[in-house]
Amino acid sequence: MIVSDLDHTMVDHHDPENLSILRFNALWEAKYRQDSLLVFSTGRSPTLYKQLRKEKPMLTPDITIMSVGTEITYGNAMVPDEGWVDVLNHKWDKNIVTEETNKFPELTLQSETEQRPHKASFYVKKEKAQEITKNLSEILAKRGLDVKIIYSGGMDLDILPQGAGKGQALAYLHKKLKAEGKLPQNTLACGDSGNDAELFTIPDVHGVMVKNAQEELLQWHAENAKNNPKIIHADERCAAGIIQAIGHFNLGPNTSPRDLPDLLDAKLDHFDPAYEVVKFYLFVERWRRGEVDAPERYLDNLKVVFSSAGLYVNPFGIEQSFDDVVGKLKDCYGDKKGKQYRVWVDQVFPVQVDSNTWLVNFKKWDQIGEVQQGCYTSAILSCKGVEPSQGLTWVHVHQTWMDGLTSDDKSWFL
Ligand code: GLC
Ligand code: MG
Predict the structure, then answer these.
(1) How many CB atoms lie under 10 A from the CB of residue 360?
(2) Which of 61, 122, 127, 400 is most buried (CB neighbours < 10 A)?
(3) What pLDDT is recorded for position 348?
(4) Which branch of life, at top level (predicted)?
C-alpha cells in the first residue's frame, strides 16, 4: 500500500511536463494496481482535490483521505467512512473553534471550501506560527476541546480534533483492513510537509520525505526520527522520490516502463496484459510526439499486434477496422510534436476469460496542454499462436467517453 500526499509529493507543481508522476503512474499500473492499494492523503478538501485531478495526470486511488485526515472515502464513488466521523466528534465543537480563532487578528481565514466539519484552516506568517499554536491550544483546552494544531508549507495552520490528522487516519485504516483480513504486507508513506509528519509515526510504516520536503518536516525528522532507518529523505523530487523509496526499501519492482527507451525491446517471458496495455499507450504518446527512433519497425510490429480481423468501436459509436486504425496511426506520426501531449492509463484490470484470452478494462486518459480527455476502454487481448516475447494480440477495443470529458473530433481513435 502506498499512502501519498499530493501537493509537492505525488504532484510536482514545478514540473510542467509532469514527468515524475507519469513515471509513477506507468509503474503502478504495470506492476502494482492489481494487488496493491493506492491511497491519496491530502490536506485539500473534496472541492480542491477534484480540481487538482482535472489539472494533473493523476491516477484514481482506491482510498482518498482528504482535509488532513478528517474525511476518508472509498472507491471511485468516494463513499464516506461514517465510522471515522464518529471518532472525530470526540471533544470537538467547530463553533467554539470559530469563536476563539476570531479573536486572533494574525489568523487569516482560508477559502470557504477549505473549512470542513472537522477542520478549520487559516494562513499564518512563519514567525508567528509557534506562538499562536501554543496560545490557541491553551485557550481551546480551557474551553473543553481536545484539538490538534498543525503547521504546513510555511503558511497553513489547521485546527483539527485530536484524533484526526493524516497519521491517525492511516492507523484507523490499518486497523480496519486488518479486521477484514486485508492488511497489506508493506506500507510506504510519502510526504513533503508538516501535516505529513504523523504518517511516519505509524508502526511498521516505511516513509519517504521527498527531496523537496519543507523545512518544518525536516526539522520534525531531525528532532523525532533521525535514527529511524525506515524513513528516508530521498534525493529525487516528488513522485521520483517515491519510486526511489520503493527501490531503497526493496518493496517491489521499481523500473517504470516509461524509463524504457525502446519499447520493442521490452520483452517478457510470460504474458502480461496490464503491462501490454501500459506499453501500448506509452507507444501512442511517443509516436504522436514524434519521439520514436525507427517508426518503420514499430509500424511493422503494429500490423502483427493488431489482428487484421479486429474491430475498434470509438467513443462516438463509430466502427473502424484495425487496418484503418493502423493506417491512421501511420498518418499521425509526430502530429503532437512540440505540444504538451501526454497519455496515461488508469485502473488497468485484466480478467482472464479463457486459456488464450484476457478482457482488460481501464481508463485511458490524455492531456493536451490544459485539456484532459478520458475514455472507459475495454480491450480483448489474445495469446493464441504467439510467444510471450512477441506480446499479446489485440482483437477488439471498445471505448466510451467519461462523463464530461469528451472531444468533438469524431475521427477520434484509441
Ligand atoms: C491544503 C488545504 C489547506 C490546508 C493545507 C495544509 O492546502 O487546502 O486547507 O491548510 O493543505 O494542511
Ligand atoms: Mg504536500
Answers:
(1) 21
(2) 61
(3) 98
(4) Eukaryota
